[in-house]
Design goal:
mainly alpha; membrane; Flavocytochrome B2, Chain A, domain 1; globular; three-stranded antiparallel β-sheet; single chain; 23 helices; about 575 residues
Length: about 575
Amino acid sequence: MSGRDRTITPCEVHDLIADGHIIVIYQDYVLKLDSWLEKHPGGTLAILHMVGKDATDEIDAYHRPPTLKTMGAFRIGRKPPGLWPNSTPPIRGGVYTKRDPLPSVTISSADDDVEVAADEVSDSESSSVNDSASVVSEKSMLTSYTSDEDSGEKPRPGLKVIWKTADDASKTKVFNGDKAAYTEWAMEQEVEKALRDYPSVDPKVQVDIQKKYRALHQRIYDEGLYNCPYLAYGKELARYSLLFSAFLVALRSEWYMTSACFLGLFWHQIMFTAHDAGHRAITGNFEIDSLIGMFIADFCCGLSIGWWKSSHNVHHLITNHPQHDPDIQNTPLFATCPSFFKSLHSSYYNFTFVWDKACEILVPYQKYTYYPVMGIARFNLYLLSWLHVISSRSSGLGNSKAWWIRPTEIAFMSCYWYIFGYLLLWCTLPTWTIRVAFVLVSHIITMPLHVQITLSHWGMSTSELGESESFAQRQLRTTMDVDCPAWLDFIHGGLQFQSVHHLFPRAPRHNLRKIQKYVMEFCEETGVPYTLLGFVDGNKHVISRLHEVGEQVGHLVNCQKYMASTGESGLH
């Protein structure tokens, strides 16, 4: 048997990772991706988050069949028969140290149809499966927060939390201003709720969901729903041209604020196609889709498609994880879960988001600041775009197919600022008042796009349930869809089908409504909840979540203030 066909055990993979190698499981093969890591057009983090894991579903979801055929070049052996015991990637805190081989261990399920074999499983690997499958004995849900100051009695600093257990009994716990203890408790409650609401993360349950997802994935292929409906883009182009023409006509007529509105609408609509290009959902060709994305995002809108792809790929793979998903790392402005109450180090930004005084002041009011901040969010994207193109993350694309992306992005973004900043704002608009108003109006008009992006995630689960949870269940647990009539799809740009999109990220957005019915059938068959809310109810859901987290912070701050001023715990 050749070296590329020999069986490589989990213990051997553990030792390879301990030596610094990048090992990922795909189908029945063990892949060593050391040489490809820095060349990966999707960024290094997309690979690093899959180290030590069976990433078959993630790889299939993000790569076209011709690309999948090249995976064999990185194969160093086969995995043992059965379910691979996923271990935590080093970037997420997994610890790997070389050790002597362990005795053979078999992990099996009660279902005879699912054989789970793992020869020489290391202690940490077997525990990751067992821990993720365990269920906290007392499943409960947080229902209300009060403080002793609210009772009308002598003010005391205790944060009183009332919740109901599985048997509908009420329980109360009081925290005396101990933020760390409260944070850990609140995070446990989030996990318990997710374990109660979603199918068990026991391997035998998850492997069944995995099989059904793969069958659905093949069905999408067979029915041609990965094929781009180019006629739909003809309609899109007509709409973009109409909006841009209206902007020019109003500008020439000196209807400056009307012109700003049409420019904002043009930006809002055309970025949906940039999103498609970023996922290679238009032509499927790397160079062509990259050029389309750069022309729209960088040249027409001043935003780096490279930055967007870098962060968006990670967001898709590790959705709603407080430490790793850059899309929910927004302190001190917003905190979407109690995990942010302790300082978190972002693996994406390589930066520690410190929970400080600014957070304690701003987060309690986040439900009020949500829409105003979304209105000016585009300015932050300009900053992030330029920081990306001058960073090592952009320059580090060693792939020969991607060397030209960074200089092209810089050129296109420079052209945008020359046209918009100099020719339009400086040379065309007559006064500083009109210039400032034009910038604000045109940028605030794009607010629904930013609301749409956050709407499908900020109100959903942020808990980590262990490495045995399937790709499909995690995506459905952390994402929701927004219901709307078909004739309004162009306003949402396909982003209202976020759950469907996260399951099939390369599927053209014009096909997502067709795929939605299959996803609903999949969820009914597997028991994985499918969250679908109307636009108004979805906004209420997010605001309610922001209010809940903000209220927790407010009560904790009041407790700490009381203790600081009196030196007493106030608990009797």
